[in-house]
Amino acid sequence: KNHKKASLLSTTMHNYTAIAEQLQEADYCVIDNALGKDHAEELREEIKGIEKHQATIAHGLTMITDSKRRDDRVAFVKNSTEPALSRHREIMENLRLALEERLQLNMTACSFMAAEYSPNASGYVRHRDASPISPSGRKLTVIYYLNPD
């Protein structure tokens, strides 16, 4: 596939067609401030408050130390009664459904990730999580970063 650098989209999450087109063109899409500062702050605080509560976070918040790949704290967000978490899951599920409709990815399973980099982190490096020995079947990854900047 063509992995040319994609331009940043200054759009809302509800511009699903533009997101789908960007994914088709460049294999990835970056949307700064997608859901606004307030949503990110509320979600960050709720996740920090329930880091170890397995009913909400599938694997807790864990620091991945392979800095060649990533050094962010990642939360896999499950169903929750917490307002920001519940709202976030609904928004991400709507995004998944809209992209499924537009891109025909035949996604049967989906997980929702939120992540945060520490101030001295190296940042995201494009990589593949799936191994040929144990493929995950993942066709789309959506990571919502909680960093304020």
From TrEMBL:
Q: Which keywords does this Swiss-Prot/TrEMBL entry list? A: Vitamin C
This entry's Gene Ontology molecular function terms read:
ferrous iron binding; L-ascorbic acid binding; peptidyl-proline dioxygenase activity
Q: Can you supply a Gene Ontology BP term from the record?
A: cellular response to hypoxia
Top-level taxon? Eukaryota
Which protein is depicted?
A: Prolyl 4-hydroxylase alpha subunit Fe(2+) 2OG dioxygenase domain-containing protein
Q: Which organism is it from?
A: Aureoumbra lagunensis
